[in-house]
Each structure stands twice: as structure tokens, then as C-alpha cells.
Amino acid sequence: MGEQPNTPGTTPATAQGTDDPYGVRKDLDDPFTLVIVWIAVLGLALVNVGLSFAIGPTKFTLPLQLMIGFVQAGLVAYYFMHLKQGDKVVILTALSSLFWMGILFVLFLSDYMTRHIIVGG
Amino acid sequence: MSASTHSSVLKHHFEDLGQQHACERLGIWMFLATEVLFFGGIFGAYTVYRLWYPHEFELASSHLNRTIATVNTVFLITSSLTMTLAIRAAKLGDRSSLIRNLLITAALGTAFMVMKGFEYSADLHERYVPGRMFQGEYEAALRAVFPTDGPALTKEQAEEYFKAHPDEHQKWAAELVLQNYGKSLNDPTYRDPGRVQLFLCFYYIMTGIHGLHIIIGIGCILWLVWEAWRGTIPPENYSTVEVVSLYWHLVDAIWLFLMPLLYLAGSGMHH
Questions:
Q1: Which of residues 40-99 of B touch A (CB under 8 A)?
Q2: I need a labelling partner for B217 at 20 to 30 A (CA). Which of A30, B168, B169, B206 fits?
């Protein structure tokens, strides 16, 4: 995950030296990378709009749209939300939110999506 | 202990700034986890009804304004970029760049809400609102085709009538009436107006709650601008900007799912 040794209290061995007494610049974003990510997320949004329009509502449309959405959200989380340089506990918190949401979905979809089988409607 | 212990930013209960920043990040991430679950509940409810009534949801979605939604997507994604650049500026101690990036982010968020306002206003004008408005408009279109004091129009006549009177009936109401013409309630191609309204409930609730988050986000960003202006965001306090940015990016990420679920569900239906 591109982690750097997190040793608070030590000046990072970068060229910043005394310019950065608190060591806050050790994970400084590269603006070029941010712009590339921005273009990618924006491009995927336009691809999503274009593809949805081109193929119309089919049974593949929703999975395709959500897949694009997950890639976009992944890019936002990894680069913009700094999971790229996150502590393990932060990454764990982020992933656990998805895990709990998974439980939420599995439990109530297993109810609502099977009612017609039991009731026979 | 490092030079960080001398910073006025360091709260007394933390060992050093590294620990303080890590705690702040963890705190906001735990809040974001509750937000994911909060929206997860709404997304879950949407999933159930989308799977139950896919055709009504697609039809209802096809009448939403995709142009505004696409422009708004561009605004939000761009605002995420400027927000991240604001953190970079904060770390570098570049106060003017920090304030500039924060103001651009707030402006993009405001532009999003202004566009949303235009969109809601157009929806209201088209009476595309669940409840009395929707029902009244649908029934008016029905009565035009099946008048109480005369013979009913044939389907072809009804199509001609709606084409000739575009200002008298909303496009969505005409489409729904034509789609359901002569069909029984059990017909698989019958589109239940109640289910169409159910989609609209999701549309207003999901975009409304998301919009509320945007407004709160704009407020937090403007507070950051004020703090930066006062000079209380030195480089070692960059995490204050980062905490707000994490919230802002989450609201952006949620929009990346609202866009396909609400606006793109029925895209390409009329072509």
C-alpha cells in the first residue's frame, strides 16, 4: 500500500530538511498524479453516461454501471482519500464499513428476495 | 520527542503530532463508516424495489434530467480534485493556494446545489412529484383518452392527440397512458403508476439527503477558509483540512452511485 515508516517525532529523511520540522510533507501528493486520477474518474463518469445511453436498459446495464461506479469510488478512496498512505487501522475501518454494508445487504435481501418463493406469489 | 511538541496545534492529551493526526484520521473514518451504513440502508431499500419493479424504475428514471446530472457529476469530481490540492497547499504552508482551492471547492459545491435547484424546479413544473401532483397529471392524461362524456380514443388517436397537444399533458403522463392502453393490471407490460411514484420517492429522498450533505460540506469548507484566513491552519494543522476533505470525498463517492442508480437506470429508453 505504499506505506512509509510512521515514526512520529523524527524528521523524515527527505530533502525538505528544516523546511518541514513536523514531517507533514512526507506524504505530499504529486499534483500530476491527482490530475491523472481526476481525468480517469471524470472519463469513467462520461463512459458510464455514454454506455448507458448506447445499450439502454438490459440486464447487463446495472452491473456494468455499478462496476464503473466501484472503480471510480476506489480511485477516489485510494488517491483522494489517501488510503494509499493510510495507517492499517484506517484501511481496516474503511474496509469494515463495506463489510458491514455487505452483511446489511445479505441479510435483508435474503428476506425480501425469497418471500415470493415461500408465499408462492 | 520532536520539535512537534512545541507546536500550539498539539492538543495536550496527545504524545506528538503524528499521534494526533492519526487519531483525527481514524475518528473521521469511523464517522464515514456510519455514513456508509446510513446510505447503505437507503441503497438497500432501493435495491429491493429495483429488483421487484425494474421496468417501472427504468421508465421513471428515463424522464429525469440527465444533462443536469452529468454537469453536476463533473462539478463534484472536480471539487474533489481541488479539495485534495487544498491539503497539499496546507502541508506546504501556502496559505493563498489553500484558500483559493477551498473557495473553488465551495463554489463547485454551490454550483452543484444551484443546478439541483433548477432540476427540482423543472421536475415541479412537470408535476413529476409523487402524490397528488403525479396522480392529478396522470388522471388528466387518462381522461383525455377515455373521456367520461364521450367515446374513448383508439391507441392511434391517443398517440396523435398527445403529439398534437404537447403543452396540455406532460410527456411522462402521456407515455404512461399509452404504455398501459388496453392492458389489464396483470399484463407484464403494464406499468403501475404507483411503482413509478415509488421510484420518485427514492429519487427525492436520496438526492435530498445527498444535497443536505453537500450543504453541510460547503459550510465546513467555508469554516476552513475562515480558519485559514485567520492563520490557524499552519502546515502541522493540515489534518483539519484533511478531515473535512475525507467527508467531502465520501459525499462525492456516494454521488458516483446515485448517478447510475437514479439517472442512468432508464437511459437510452426513448432512442
A1: 40-41, 44, 47-48, 50-52, 54, 58, 66, 70, 73-74, 77-78, 80-81, 83-85, 87-88, 91-92
A2: A30
